[in-house]
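Revision sheet: structure tokens.
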Amino acid sequence: MSKNNNESSVLFDEPGPKGKRTIRIANWIGGIIVAILVVLILMRLHNPPDGENQLDWELWKPALDGEAWTDFYLPGLWMTIKAAVLAVIGSVVFGLIFGIGRLLPSRIVRAVSGVIVEFCRAVPVLMFMIFFWRLFSFMGIQSASYWAVVLGLILYNGSVVAELVRSGVGNLPGGQREASLALGLTTTQSLMQVEVPQAVYAMLPAAVTQLVVVLKDTALGSIIMYTDLLQESRRLGSMYFNILQTLVVAGVVYFIVCALLSKLAEWLPSRMQARTAAPAEPEPVAPIAIMDASNVNQIAVAKEVDEDRYGGVPRKYHVHHRGTNASVRHWRQTRYEQGYDATHPESEKEPDHVEFPDIPLPGKKSHPHEDKPDKGKNDK
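Predicted:
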């Protein structure tokens, strides 16, 4: 079974032939319904009751030409990325500070950090933006809308990062802290030097996923007149009276950027695992049973040789054979003697040259010079 099938079987069993047929029919019905809805929407846009044809190229051309990209889309996209990057950095710092604060031994620090995090999680992001925009405008701060967007995103997403840090430390094995305390570290030292670094490394994929949320939430800044991608596309649409077309283009840009970030979030865990998982050689294991595939002991077996010239009992010699017969005792030895196994003729290795000593056979006289004693030596 493939990897995808193994992953899907965790949630539900693989459907049988009848279930697969039902799913296939439901997919076809759903696809037909979606196609009908798309056709109806296009027909409505082509011939609206009170208005012009929204599929006319004259309305799409101003939303796709080079001037629209250089003067509206790309500057708006840059402001969106500018606010998102600063908000992400601030969110990580905010989350680390208050996430660690919720784990410190001091009850006061834990209580204060918990109240701040829960408050920032409960208040809507748009309310934060409006409040800081009014405050910064009253104080006369330049780029009040920009800083209001950034600060609102930091407070909300920083509280999410704080919860990621707290949950990451909570999911670590208990032996981490026990080992640190056994080495003489205090609870705070164990938290800062051992537990938090591991939690931060483990939460990186979730933090990258949160980056997609930060990027999309910058669009709320258009309500307080922040010139992001959404605001610039609305300005372009108001100039050529093609607000639908410009918003569609802006939506496609948002989709591409968020899809790239999602791919990064999918790639990051595998990359982290490849960098942290060291290759390990499997421990040698003794053969388990007869015909087990892991048994590759080389066997020296005795093979019978039929030679007419012997005329008596057949002679035997050893050949090498990679067998599957298990030997739990002395299994590390590469050779041992065993009776000839004719069931594995393909793995035999015949010796290059087999020498058989000349044995005199019954009824055959030996050479006269072979049996004659040396008279000179006997005389001496």
